[in-house]
Amino acid sequence: MVRIAADEIPGRGTYHGRVTSEARTPVRKRVLLAKPRGYCAGVDRAVQTVEEALKLYGAPVYVRKQIVHNKHVVSTLEARGAIFVEENEEVPEGSTVVFSAHGVAPEVHEQARERNLKAIDATCPLVTKVHHEAKRFAAQDYDILLIGHEGHEEVIGTSGEAPAHIQLVDGPDDVENVVVRDPSKVVWLSQTTLSVDETMETVARLKTRLPLLQSPPSDDICYATSNRQHVVKEIAPDCDVVIVVGSANSSNSVRLVEVALGAGARAGHLVDYASEIRDEWLEGATTVGVSSGASVPEDLVMEVLAHLAERGFGEVTEYTTAEERLTFSLPQELRRDMKAAAARS
Predict the structure, then answer these.
(1) 116-143 pLDDT, tens per residue?
(2) Residue 250 counted as an annotated binding residue
(3) For 210-268, what is each residue's pLDDT tens digit?
(4) In CATH, what number is assigned to the domain containing residue 242?
(5) 257, CA 20 to 30 Å: which among 7, 17, 18, 164?
(6) Could you name the active-site residues (predicted)?
(7) Residue 101, domain extent
């Protein structure tokens, strides 16, 4: 743990010639700041992709869906000239379109080609890994049980790789609805941003029904999701309230609140901005935990710490459980154009 700042604690009461009760010591208020938090390698790559595309091609650059699930990031990129759309048909023919970090189905690439769009795929490489696994197991005629949340863009994209073979399992309670052709040829895959514990519970229930169920070659839940959940689990038992910075449509941010509550935090809240923190959340609290989802820029976390400091929570201890150094290169189609532009200049 790294101590960032600390207030001095006043001394004991003073004797004045008669017996008195001890002078009340001000309650020590503190913040436990989770690390790792915020941007993961896939989000950093996706946001940088849009930023570099705007520099290279000029505005507007169209982005299919939110590039990452964060309100602040989207509004910031919109101010720079990015235009967010729901489908390719909203993009003028011949324009540049960036696909979000959550991945897309093959048909989305085909639609882009039909409209003569310059497509830049910012899908997180860890999501792409799940797409490759789905295609490989489908080619071997496996039934694929995809653990994830119905309607999430990542689930839609992965399912699109092998729709005839993939069946969604939306949590442990959905296991009873699973039907497979051959119990000896079944594999489970998962959305990358799920609760680790809930996913393992889902898998355990599946294996009671399907003892020969195979697991993916490597973990599908990404390192950043696992790391952020682990550190929140560590600090939550000591926290009266845990504040997670993140947007409501961010699966991994929502999961952090759930993990905090499950690990012993007395309360947990999700906020996009510091201004959303209610004073009543802090009433009676002495320890506040702070973390942020994988699509949240660090300046939003710093604003939360400043907000808490103004309310007496000026002592901040950073609690670190892992160091993250992974980075991903920009999409190859963007790198190719950047290299060509540099050669011309």
Answers:
(1) 999 999 999 999 999 999 999 999 999 9
(2) yes
(3) 999 999 999 999 999 999 999 999 999 999 999 999 999 999 999 999 999 999 999 99
(4) 3.40.1010.20
(5) 7
(6) 154
(7) 41-124
Token output for 291? 């973390």
Contact at 8 Å (CB) between 214 and 239? no
Q: Is 69 annotated as a binding residue?
A: yes
For the CA atoms of 231, 255, 249, 191, what is the dihedral angle to 10 degrees?
Answer: 100
In a shared domain, residues 279 and 236: yes
Number of compact structural domains in the chain? 3
Pairing label, strands 186-190, 143-147: parallel
In a domain, 176, yes or no: yes
Annotation says 154 is catalytic: yes
- Catalytic, out of 52, 133, 154, 161: 154
Task: Determine contact, residues 17/335, Cβ cutoff 8 Å.
Answer: no
pLDDT digits (tens, 9 = 90+) for 289-343: 999 999 999 999 999 999 999 999 999 999 999 999 999 999 999 999 999 999 9
Instruction: Kindly state the tokens that stand for 68.
Output: 């990452």
Q: Check whether residue 167 and residue 236 sit in a common domain.
A: no
Residue 343: inside a domain, yes or no?
Answer: no
Confirm whether residue 239 is marked as ligand binding. Answer: no
Task: Please tell me whether 75 is known to bind a ligand.
Answer: no
Let me know if residue 183 belongs to a domain.
Answer: yes
